[in-house]
Amino acid sequence: MTLADARAIVPNLEVVEADEAADFHLLERIADWCGRFTPFVALDPPCALLLDITGVAHLFDGEAALLDQIRAELAQRGFAVRGAIAGTAAAARALARYQNGVVAPPQKEAELIARLPVEALFLDPATTHALRRAGLKTIGQVAERRRSELTARFGSQMVFMLDHALGRVELPITPRLPTPDYRAERQFAEPVITHEGILATLASLACSLAAVMEKQGLGARRLEAVFFRSDGAVRCIAIETAAPTRDAGIIARLFREKIDALADPLDPGFGFDTIRLSASRTERVEACPSDFAAEAEQQKELHFLIDRLAARFGSERVLLFQPNNTHIPEAAFVLVPAQSAKPTQDAWVAVRSWGEAPRRPLRIFANPESVDVMAETPEGPPRQFRWRHALHTVRRVEGPERIAMEWWRHETPQPTRDYFRIEDEQGCRFWLYREGIYGRETLAPRWFLQGLFA
Amino acid sequence: MNRYAEIAVTTNFSFLRGASHPHEFALAAQAHNLDAIGIADRNTLAGVVRAYEALREIKEDTGKAPKLLVGARLVFVDGTPEILAYPSDRTAYGRLCRLLSEGKLRAPKGECLLTLEDLLKWQEGLLLVLMPPHPGRTATEIGPPAKSWNQNLARKQGGSGVIPKEKFAKTLLASSQELEALLIKLKHAAPGRVWLGAFMPYRGDDRRRLKNWQRIAHAAGVPLIATNDVLYHTPERRELQDVLTCIREHLTLEAAGRLLEANAERYLKSPDEMARLFRDAPEAVAETIRFAERITFSLDQLQYHYPDEPVPKGKTADQHLADLTWAGAVERYPGGIPDSVRETLCKELALIKKMQIAHYFLTVYDLVCFAKSRGILCQGRGSAANSAVCFVLGITNVDPTEIDLLFERFVSEERREPPDIDVDFEHERREEVIQYIYQRYGPHRAALTAARICYRSRSAIREVGKVFGLSEDITARLASSVWGSRDDELKASEVRQGRFDPENLVIARAVRYANQIIGFPRHLSQHVGGLVLSNDRLDEIVPIGPATMKDRFFIEWDKDDIDALRMMKVDVLALGMLTCIRKAFALIEKHEHKRLNLAAVPREDPAVYAMLQKADAIGVFQVESRAQMNMLPRLKPKTFYDLVIEVAIVRPGPIQGDMVHPYLRRRSGQEAVTYESPAPEHGPPDELHAVLDKTLGVPLFQEQAMKLAIVAAKFTPAEANGLRRAMATFRNIGTIDRFRRKLIEGMVARGYRREFAERCYRQIEGFGSYGFPESHAAAFAHLVYVSAWIKCFHPAAFACALLNSQPMGFYAPAEIVRDARAHGVEVRPVDVNFSEWDNTLERGANGALALRLGFRQIGGFSQAWAAKLVGARGNGYADMEKLIHRAGLPKRALIILAEADSFGSLGIDRRTALWRLRRISEPQALPLFEAQHVEEQEPEELAPLPTMPPSEHVLVDYEMLRLSLRAHLMEFLRDLFAAEGVLSCAEIGTAPDGVHAAAAGIVLVRQMPGEAGVVFVTLSDETGMCNVVVWPKLVERFRREVMSARLMLVEGRVQRSPEGIVHLVAERITDRTVELERLSEDYGAALSGRVRAGQYVHCHPRNERVIPRSRDFH
Fold first, then answer.
1. I want to staple B92 with a disulfide (CB 3.0 to 4.6 A). Which of A49, B87, B600, B618 is the partner?
2. DSSP for A408-423?
């Protein structure tokens, strides 16, 4: 069924895009969580986990109790769970789907499985369909056919799957590998007390961490140093970087900046017996050829500067101008925290062509100031204007540059602006605009001064 | 007084750029009192005829209108800035068309690739205005076509060469030096015909820029000309233009930024305004007037000549037509030409001669002759087709003596309209006719007309919604709340129906602009069968471009444009029923040795009418839909003309005009036949008698409505036609209102009842886009009669031909087969030993013809496989091994045959056959050894498989064939439903009026006609069909059930009309689809996911599947 059809049936259907990656991630997290029951957890995507509980059931009061506990705890966390325990992975998978909650006793297992529909074999759809068309609708009915008959039609793999489900062959599960931990720590027999000692330790930890990250092609965006004091107190210091980094020297320097700038300095007391450095947020580092000219190098240095300043003054205080794609002059630029600034597609408008005066003033007022102006109707330039009580006589003028407001941002129509570049008799240059097109939008346009040219 | 002519107008035919219709520009130009207006769309002339029409109307209304300058804005791929090209005279216009055609032929569909060289090649006589790029715009907008575009194909299509890659430039030549150099180059090529365009975009430095342009123009020695580079007719359209830009660039308004225009200045400005803007260069404004005066070309000069091929040398077209006519008349009336016919023929021939349209009739006759020579059935319809001339020429089969149709009523002199003949051909063989036309006239003289694809409410809201950042989800909901009328604006009520607040600002805006772009052209496509033929090169009359199919071309103008320019076209249309009738004739000839053709079917057979009166009409042309089948018993057709009415009455026009019931009452004698009349002082009381005589005083046909406007409201014929056109094109709201007032007030003023006048207006409104004239109805009625006759006397052949002509008609194969069986036709299953690709007829044991299902009924089986299987069959396959061996079919084909249970004659049932076939290995693809390569397998001793229960057989039948000869699915569930007190469809059919009852059945059809929101559902069970009506309120309550149930239980009240038409008016609906799972022991587990998934809600009834095809059986 297409979405359009579904919507015709249920008009207020809520639609969420499937996110397979997120589903898989969630499954992984549940797998992690299951680590408390057995170390052998295998993923069976898209929505199943296989747990090898050989030798662990007694820790949880037996198999049935273990199954109940897992199901109950997951249900409590809001998941709909089906589960079963059986001698082989295939049998458990089949039972979980079709006989929720069953713990198959070894001698009864084949019988239980035989009653399940052929779908429980999880064969490819064509094979399942063929079996159903042949009237072989349960696993038992299939199992009664001769092996040669089945092999001739569906291949030996299908017979193997059947035997696996019936518990006639074993197939060990492949538990998943733990994700690498970007963490380095050092314990000291003699607690470190000195500033230099601490920084030296961080530097060497940074080296080992950098080596791990390099292997994975990652760099850190956020790093945390945790200091365990011998009396039990723990202190955590974090730094962030503008670009993923795994340069041990940079990491060490950033920590030094940060530690030096702490308002509340690191107090080693009787010394730290453990120092741990971990990368809590990592990103893939775009491998760039090292001979990539000076620009990349410059960029790197700029990032380093930003990081150092941010480490010292706080990242919200190191700002960057970025262009904003709009005709509205006061909105044409934005200030963003430099560390979190994303490279933008937008380009700055060229406000000045070669040999000409700039089209935008160096200084733009956040709030344009109202001025009294003498000008010709309908759209003549100003002759004279009074700004902050001072009268200016216009000597040179160019304009109008007509800028209409972004109508989709406002509930009611906003007046259009006619901008003029003006030079008065003293040689001062101003940027004035008339608000409202005479005749079309208003009969009494108002005037504002929005900027000063240098 | 200032004078000005705007020469740089971009209309909305520059798709997603111009934000006003050509006619809006025309009106604005008139309002501003401009001297002239130049329409120059991007590499196209598609919009000029609309402007031409609008200005002509303005001139008719006010006596004066701005001059239209026809031109194009040439956009180049090689970095040359845009150039406005205006032909000064007719020959230069031809060159412009050639230039554009060339660019189009070498480009992918819908695009046009040009370089400066092309222009220099065709520049003679063209006035060229170089438009400097707008400040800040330096990138070219047309790049090289996508890689997938096949350049070799382009070369073959007759475009002159391909533009080499290196010619494509990314940046425009925009600097002063480059502009100057370009102007000089142009000036050398086209001395005295080059200008530099200037405009004042309010960028602050306008005056400096103008100075610079003055300098460049002076240096190059060309005049400067003022324009405003117009995109819309009033500044209020700026917002819409922003929206269009966003749609074009696939951006939201938020993200579009400086891609949008900075201000609203690109509107059509008045001469005073332009004079003020260009006060530093008044000569540039004055130049526009001189420019306009240089142009002598007007679209009036398009002397269009119809091809004169069909006329033999030494004869005039009129002579030839007259000769053919009289020869044909002798043939049609072997017993002597009746006097009345002779008189009519003379009158018609005189009129044809006067209007100089003999060529047109000859061309159509030529096509019809070709089709007849190939045995392709065809039939003409349309206004001019209903002439005695067309009848005796064999273009139509409606005898003018049988039905009194007045030719001059349709081809009227004063309307100055080209005649209109549409010819329907068999849908499977229309292609041959088109090929013939291309062969005969060559690609330069024959091309398809364009179909202008416009924004409709759904597409509009979807795209505009995106621009406002609404998610796909929301726009889809908004779009889906529009039912039916797709040209209408989205109303607040509909917005609410989609559960949105129409007051919400963003949604309100999206809806407002969506409504504004409804009717804006989106792209040009080819018309399905409208062909323009010309005696001269077509590409010197209008630019042509490549159509989807290789070696096909279509022009830039659509049928309205062609009408406006009085060009003639032939509609070569496809009609499924003609295919079906031809196939039925062939079957009858083969098995019953009777030769038939459209004209030879015995007329007015009472048995045929008796059958139709019982609404026994499944498969019959035009009258098989549910609405028509309900009408048949009420109308009780007895004569041919009744069929004409039957065809025309179940249409939006008469229904909206509330004409159906009055007509039926008068027909059944419940109401006296009276004629509305004007006040005595205004005219004779029976002035409508002549107009409405045949339809008992009730206007039913489009012509009657038009005639009514003429007689009762004193419209001129031209006005009446304008009224019809205004309705059809619809968007012209101002015009519609004017006509509305004129019609209603005109009638009321002459003493007609206001209520009657309003009804007439509503009806004309209803005719608007679905106009159904008597002339069409008569042509269709003939096919109704012929198909009914075949069904009545040759039911087996009829069913067989219907099945073999699929897809066509209204019903799915299961209904066609069931209907045939109900008429006593034996239907035999698909069988490897007896079937062919097509369904066939066999002699049954009792001597009657039986229908053998063919392989084409099996879903997924291919014609090539069928050919192999039948070819190797010889005297039949004795067993499965021989079949596998000899037919050499792939395993997949064999499995499909087994799934369809077609091994019956070998005594192997579906299940066994499948199990055995699964074992064979795919034959190796070495044709030489193909036969040997199917390896001999050890015989296998098999334990028996469980037998397949009958109900499961039926389910698989439906899955594979969409029908079952074994049983109806409902038979297996009858006990279950009977226990619940549910009646069968047959029982509902005999239940008394007003009783409460329940019925259950498989859903065959669900329809929601019009905006009312009523849903009609047709249920089917083993006893027949049951018509269910679901009122809108109930639809809302049981929406899910109504839309998605395959097996529906309906409780409600039986409603029985006096004519015996029975409906079940639903009060409660239950989705019982799950019951289907019972039909196969535990088939449910596999089926449930699919059955419950519901079916395609908007799908045509004949495509509905009761049981979905499984996608995974091979």
1. B87
2. GG-SSPPPPEEEEEEE
Residue tagged 């004078």 (tokens): B3
Residue in chain A nearest B503 by alpha carbon:
A411
Hey, which residues does B569 pair with through a beta bridge?
Answer: B532
pLDDT of residue A355: 76
Lowest mean pLDDT among A231-240, B194-203, B487-496, B968-977: B487-496
**Amino acid identity for residue A35 in this structure:** G
Q: What is the DSSP letter of B230?
A: B
Q: How far is B945 from chain A (nearest CA, A)?
A: 7
Residues of B in contact with A129 (CB under 8 A): 1086, 1110, 1112-1113
User: ipTM value of the model?
Assistant: 0.76
Q: Give the closest residue to B571 by CA, choosing from B753, B384, B696, B442.
A: B384
Q: Which two tokens stand for residue A372?
A: 């009294």
A9–B1044 C-beta distance less than 8 A: yes
Nearest to B592 by CA among B765, B790, B757, B779: B790
Residue of B nearest to A153 (CA): B919
Q: B539: which DSSP letter?
A: G
Q: Is A416 on the interface with B (CB under 8 A)?
A: yes
Tell me if chain B has a CB within 8 Å of the CB of A235.
no
User: How far, rounded to the nearest angstrom, does the alpha carbon of residue A352 sit from its chain's CA centroid?
Assistant: 39
Strand partners, B726: none
Q: In a mutagenesis test of the B interface, which of A154, A402, A434 is the best target, namely the one with the most B β-carbons within 10 Å?
A: A402
- CA distance readout (Å), A184 to A203, A205, B771: 11, 6, 82
Longest CA span, chain B: 106
**What confidence score (pLDDT) does residue B195 get?**
97
CA distance, residue B968 to nearest chain A CA (Å) = 20
pLDDT cut 90: percent of chain B above it: 42
- Residue tagged 């997924």 (tokens): B860
How far out from the chain centre does Cα B26 lie?
A: 29
Q: Which residues of A touch B476 (CB under 8 A)?
A: 3-4, 7
State residue B213's pLDDT score: 96
B903: which chain A residues are within 8 Å (Cβ-Cβ)?
none
| Angle in degrees, CA A63, A64, A65, rounded to 5 | 90
Could you give the CA distance from residue B479 to residue B1048 in angstroms, rounded to a whole number?
Answer: 28
**CA–CA distance, B56 with B397 (Å, rounded to integer):** 39
Q: What are B56-75's pLDDT values in tens digits?
A: 888 988 889 999 999 999 99
Per-residue pLDDT tens over the stretch B351-398: 888 888 888 899 899 999 999 999 999 998 877 777 888 889 989 887
Report yes or no on whether pTM surpasses 0.95: no
Containing B1093, the helix (H) or strand (E) segment is: none
Cα–Cα distance measured from residue B692 to residue B293, given in angstroms and rounded to the nearest whole number: 52
CA B511, distance to chain mean position in Å, is: 26
* Full strand arrangement of the beta sheet holding B840-843: B826-828, B849-852, B840-843
| Chosen from A408, A419, A432, A434 to mutate, greatest number of chain B CBs within 10 A | A408
More confident: B1087 or A376: A376
Q: Which residue has the tokens 């199919």?
A: B549
Are the C-beta atoms of B984 and B1023 separated by less than 8 Å?
yes
Residues of chain A with pLDDT under 50: none
Quick check: B458 and B477 in contact, CB under 8 A?
no
**CA–CA dist B760, B15 (Å, integer):** 37
- Closest-CA residue to B287 (of B129, B74, B179): B129
User: Residue B626 to residues A35, B150, B642, B650, B759: CA-CA distances in angstroms?
Assistant: 64, 48, 18, 10, 25
CB atoms within 10 A of CB B472: 13
Is A134 in the B-facing interface, judged by CB distances under 8 Å?
yes
Per-window interface: A 269-328 vs B, CB < 8 A = 324-327
Token pair in block for residue B931: 């036969």
